[in-house]
Each structure stands twice: as C-alpha cells, then as structure tokens.
Amino acid sequence: MREKVIFDTNVVRNPEINNFLGGREILERFTQDADIVIPDTVIQEIKRQKRSSLVSNKTKFLTNPFHKLIGVDEANTKSFDVEDYIQKLLDTETIPFETIDLKDHSVLPLIKELAILKKAPFEAGDNTDKGFKDALIYFTILEYLQEIPNKYVFVFAKDARFKEALANHPNIIIIDSYDDFKKYGISQFYDSYFIENINAVLGITITKDNIKEYWFNINDNIALLIEFEGQEYVIETDSMEIIDHCNRNEYVEEIENLIKSTRFVITHRAIGKLMPYINYLSDKEIARILNASLANEDIRRIIADDDVKEFIGSLYDSKKEVLTDKEVLQFLKETFE
Q: Which residues of 111-140 are buried (b: 16+ CB within 10 A; e: fewer)?
C-alpha cells in the first residue's frame, strides 16, 4: 500500500501556461514512492491563476500594435477559448494525481467559528480574513483520513498557520521536502511492538537503527531492509503486518547472474531462481534488470519466452516509472503493451 501525500497550493501553484501543475521536479520525485493527492480547492485555485494570466496575456496581445503589423488574424486570437485551454492542460497532465473534495458541508459552521476566533489556519491579525481556502483544504484532509485504509497521510505544506492547524492531528505528518518524507516514512516502523514482531519472525534482536531502507514492491506493499551483524534481511509488510521475509543473500547473486548472462540457459536459470523473490526486489534492482533486458542480447533475444516474459513483464507493468532511458522504455512498451 503506497503512502498518500497531499499537496497544498504553495507547492503546485503554476501561473505558467504550458503545464497544469507546478512544482514538477518535486512531484516527479514523489511519484516514485507515493500517490499524489491534491484537494479540489487547490485545483480551482490553479485554474483561477491560469485564467487570470491567460486573459491578461490575451488582452495585451490584442492591444499590441505588432498584432496587426505582423498580420496575425485578430479573429483567431479573439476566439481563443481560455476555459477550454485550461481544461485541456488538466486533462493532459502527465503527473498522476488523485483529486479529493469536501463532501460534508456541515463543517461550514466550524470554519466560520475558526474564522471568528482567528484560530489556525486563519491568520491571527484583526485586519485580515486570510485562511478560508486553507480551512477548506484542512477539513477536506480530515474527511479524507476517515475514508482511506492508511489512517495517516503526509501533507506537504509551507504556510505556517496551515501547518499549525495540521499539527494538532497525530495522524497527519507535515513535511516540506522529499527528504522529510523519506525520513518520516521509515520512522513509522520504529514502533516497539512492530520491532518485537520483526525479532520474533527473524529470530534476532534488532533496534530501530537496524532498519535501513524501505520501498514499495510490485504489489505496492512495503519492503523493509534490515541490516544485522553482516546480514541483510528483507521483510514484506502490508499495513504494518509482516507478510513474509527472506535473507537478501538468497537472491542478490542471481540478479548479477541475470544481468551479466551470456547464455540462454543462464538467463532461464537466473529467472527461475529470482521469481520466488520478485516481491523483495527494490526499485534500483528492478531498474537494473529492466535496463539489462535491452542491453543484454541474451535476455533480449528470448524475452518472448514464457518465463522471461512473465518475470520481466511483471516488473515492467508495476515499475515502469523507475526507468529513465527512453530507448529501454520504448523497447519494453513495444514488447509488453
């Protein structure tokens, strides 16, 4: 189950006209590890910003004398539909995200009360009513928490009063960077009861310092890397329950054998040994295998064989986002889609 990260307006706002969402470099990092969630209030604010920018630019273009000097058809400019263009940007947005909206309007009196009392997320000063949009987002997040199995969410926020309001809820983890997300993400596994379960399952005695890394596997469950006395263990978990585990030494050598394979028989053998461990593979390991499917001729030539197709295809279907090489992506797309 992937983490949910909610973004406020300050992160994804984008008055530019070429893409719908802003903060793209930040968002693209998060897509590797989490589901991006954006409140509808934020979406509407982005639309408003774009509408203002486009209408202003359209007016300036029409009143600019060069508009006529260079022979641009004024009718085409006037007929440019701002709303259609904004909707097209939204519909063609390449960064995947989920939109959430406030359904329970009975909270409106609570919003009014917060505004009157100048409580967060509203500003404390007497000469401002700033905070209404943040209040809508705040109650949207609280409602969303009741609807998802995670029962906790990350919120990427920058506004101080908004963060002050969110801080009252222990199941809302406030972050302001991707590094924050990774740090707090792994800390959820520091619970003493969970560590006791790890010790019971593995038959060792670890502390939180032995938990080194986590990632989402091909089933969107969380895999944990445990380092203890020179050994590396990988544990698959779902909702903080341990599903299965293994010693990483059981399969890591076969990754190298597959990537460096020089014979068909070696490729088939390596895949046969790796298949039972497919749920433990990290994004880095999967990326190396997928890249090798094109770079290694012995894998490429038998990629249509049933076992190779099942193994490589499963990795590609669930983790294609880990690839950065366009040639590899195109090759695997043609092979499996």
A: beebbeeeebbbbeeeeeeebebbbbbbbb
